[in-house]
Specification:
Blueprint: H1 2-17, H2 27-56, H3 72-99, E1 105-106, H4 115-141, H5 147-151, H6 170-186, E2 189-190, H7 191-207, H8 226-235, H9 246-251, H10 265-278, H11 280-291
Parallel strand pairs: 1-2
């Protein structure tokens, strides 16, 4: 995060915002700057990626599902807008620790004998480490003692849209992001890779709420995608993982997505619409429309 803050200081905060006498490394100034940068970045990333996903990926026929709520999209957005500033407060505290040199983040690949190899390994280990911790944190949030108070707000959305991706109770949102922050305090990680992975995991979080249930056949047993996570919202006790199905299989909480079996929410909507279209009442209505000259074929 020091790379982002350094750029923000150079191009914006130092020349236009703060008094020249206020040092850039002052902890109070850094706290204020990080709060601004973190919130601004979170909102831009959320609205930009979720909007693209909603209009170009999300299957809007899911909105006809009976468990899709009235005004759901606007409610998801409002919930997120209210939660992100609160989530940013403990997040900035961890960013400050990184900024003050308490983490194992580094910026020179040459610091290690096998620099590039270590960089590649760190990406893989980051994904598996965070997936493991998120699984257990997420599963713990489903415990009856904490679920109603903390995690239930995210499960209001039975048929989520990309805008539900960050619609968490603030404590819930921070706890599920905590593994991303823990990793660089335990293992060495390049600063640019860390920033890239932080953006990537936020995009992934949006993608598993995007209603696109297609997965390459070879990856279906391995990847926890939108089909898996939508079933988590629908059936509650399954598919807690973030990226992979590994820990759900180990923990006995894996459920083959209903979408892969032709029983998912899109199949339900399709069957519902066909049943409605083929019902006697609907047929009578269509015949009446035809007798009035409507529904005629056009070239």
């Amino acid at each position: 995060m020091d790379l982002v803050l350094s750029a923000a200081d150079h191009y914006f905060f130092t020349p236009y915002i703060y008094p020249a006498a206020w040092p850039e490394d002052d902890i109070f100034r850094q706290t204020i700057s990080l709060l601004i940068v973190t919130n601004l970045g979170a909102y831009v990333l959320y609205f930009f990626c979720a909007t693209l996903s909603y209009y170009f990926v999300y299957d809007h026929s899911l909105m006809k599902h009976p468990q899709f709520l009235k005004n759901q999209v606007s409610r998801e957005i409002m919930f997120t807008v209210k939660s992100l500033p609160w989530i940013s407060i403990p997040t900035v505290a961890l960013f400050l620790l990184e900024l003050r040199g308490y983490s194992k983040l580094y910026d020179d690949i040459g610091e290690f004998p096998n620099g590039w190899f270590q960089l590649v390994v760190s990406v893989i280990s980051f994904l598996f480490f965070t997936d493991m911790l998120i699984y257990w944190i997420h599963r713990g949030l489903h415990h009856r003692l904490v679920y109603k108070r903390i995690h239930k707000p995210h499960h209001i959305w039975k048929i989520p849209t990309p805008f539900a991706s960050h619609a968490f109770h603030p404590v819930d949102g921070f706890l599920q992001s905590l593994p991303y922050h823990i990793y660089p305090f335990v293992f060495p990680l390049h600063k640019v890779v860390y920033l890239g992975l932080y953006v990537l995991v936020n995009i992934w979080t949006i993608s598993i709420h995007d209603g696109d249930f297609r997965v390459p056949q070879i990856l279906k047993p391995l990847i926890n995608g939108s089909a898996h996570h939508t079933d988590h919202h629908l059936f509650f006790d399954y598919n807690y993982g973030q990226y992979f199905t590994l820990w759900d299989r180990i923990g006995g909480s894996f459920k083959n997505p209903s979408a892969f079996e032709g029983k998912g929410p899109l199949n339900y909507v399709k069957d519902m619409m066909e049943e409605k279209y083929n019902s006697p009442k609907e047929n009578s209505y269509k015949n009446e429309k035809l007798s009035n000259g409507d529904f005629k074929k056009t070239k």
